[in-house]
Amino acid sequence: MKLFKRPKKPGVLPMPLWLQGMFELGQAAVLSALVVILPLTGVWAANGFSDRDYASLARLSGQAWLLLHGVPLTLSLPAGTIGPEESAGLLSLIPLGLTLIPFFLCWRAGRRLARASYTDQLWQALIGALGTYAMLGVAAAYFSANEDVSISLVAGGLIPLIAAGLGVIIGARQEAGSWVRLIGVDLTDWIARTSQHSRWAGSYLWAAVRAGAVGVTAAVSLSALLLVAALAMNWTQMAAVYQRLDAGIIGGVVLTVGQLGLLPNLVAWTLSWASGAGFSLGTGSTISPLETTVGPLPALPVLAALPGGQMEFAYAALLIPVAAGVLAGWWFLREGENHFDEWLAIKVDARWFTATVSTVCLGGIIGIVAGFFAAGAALLSRGSLGIGRFVDVGPDPLWTGIWIAAEVAVGAVIGYAAGPWLEREKFRRPASDALGSART
Known about the structure:
2 domains, transmembrane helix, transmembrane, 66% helix, membrane, 18 helices, DUF6350, mainly alpha
């Protein structure tokens, strides 16, 4: 069955799917490269680089394109750059905001490929699309390397496929509307063939996973609001840093675009800070509500919004993950899939015991799921600048996950227990009592 039918003119052969996949993701790669090339060309034209060679500009653009896809760059710094001896480091800090550009371009390509494919032939378009993207990544890694920057060809070919592949698959799934129309596999029929107990257990776990996703989404949203408030309150200091840099119009625009690309990273760092785990900006530095120790920092305007001085109300930030957990527990109550509590109530007559055990277990599951997602966000947002002490930048994924899991779990227990009061449900008499009253 074809997903969607396209009008065809008589005598015109349709484009092969593998060729259309090559064209769609090749176009996405070119458009994402232009996002990097145009600002760098402006800086180059304004004499912003010491090397005025076209080839050096092309190599720098290729390096930036690979970096925003997550490909690490190995830097070899000559003697005298940061020390008396030659040094080497790994540049792996990914500007996640810029990574969204190829992701959404590939998402658009995935939707177009889904419209052009039969349910059992989408793999042809995917092979052509991802194969083209991998070859372009290998070519960029090969031609962008120089005596100061070395890039693994394997990493250049495979790592860009993560953002591109996710974009294509999510776009194709959204266009198809269901996995059965996309890949020909009906998960609903497979679930229907399982036992009732398996379906109840699956519904319970799936609802708990979604509640954990709700919790971490709420925590990220509240952390983003906290970041916006910090930027607004420190706008004067940020403007002063811009004035001291005096980068000009083009340099200021490029600097602003780079900071916008780091906004998702900063949101993840704010989430880690609000959890209590904190983050680091270089070896030996710690920034958290419990302790703040910061060394010399680069002249980046957004860093002027870092918390400092007397932070009497910093501990209140620890309530952000707890509040997100309350929302997650409330959402699970409204979902009505607590089959574990129902099973316990059948097995054990002591309601005080079954309600306590089921709620605590539910909070633990939701907290673990939220901690897992938070650890993943922290892992993506951290990295290394490969220069001096800035080889460790960002939050620690393990501690961020542990703190978020514990705090969201506590909030989920509170939210689920307080859910009936939040819903303002009235007490309902048993059906037998209501029937007796009616007879009377």
